[in-house]
């Protein structure tokens, strides 16, 4: 699957809910896991591979999450700073503030409803991928000066390379 990068319009669009849970969805989620692994990431949202639907995959400490129609029900009080990167913004890593604990609700690949509390890396990764489905990139959460420097760096990288595909 092709991973769309920084300026692709689909990355800025709020994704639509999934209404059908079928073999096509399950196959797409499996392909996304393989694409994420090939790219050495821990998460990948549907819009990052050109699909305008609300789902993403995560793999953290050998646990795979296939998340469909996610919601964040509650944010914890403790805010932590953590360095983030993104497969759609290659080579850029910045510290982002996020709640350390969240309560989430989502459907699995078969449509079963799951509600759970996430902490630490799973919490931050879930929030990062959830943001993708809202059309938000992690660089939107950093200072304007840092964001402008990143834009310039990405423009330079774009001029000097080919699009990434995994």
TrEMBL record:
Fe cation binds at residues 86, 128, 132. The keyword Hydrolase applies. It catalyses: N-terminal N-formyl-L-methionyl-[peptide] + H2O = N-terminal L-methionyl-[peptide] + formate. InterPro entries: Peptide_deformylase, Peptide_deformylase_sf. Its EC number is 3.5.1.88. Binds 1 Fe(2+) ion. GO terms for molecular function: metal ion binding; peptide deformylase activity. It is an enzyme of class 3 (hydrolase). Keywords: Hydrolase, Iron, Metal-binding, Protein biosynthesis. It comes from the Bacteria. The active site is at residue 129. Signal peptide: none annotated. One of its GO terms (biological process) is translation. Its cofactor is Fe(2+). Belongs to the polypeptide deformylase family. NCBIfam families: pept_deformyl, PRK00150.1-3. Removes the formyl group from the N-terminal Met of newly synthesized proteins. Requires at least a dipeptide for an efficient rate of reaction. N-terminal L-methionine is a prerequisite for activity but the enzyme has broad specificity at other positions. This is Peptide deformylase. It comes from Streptobacillus felis. The gene is def.
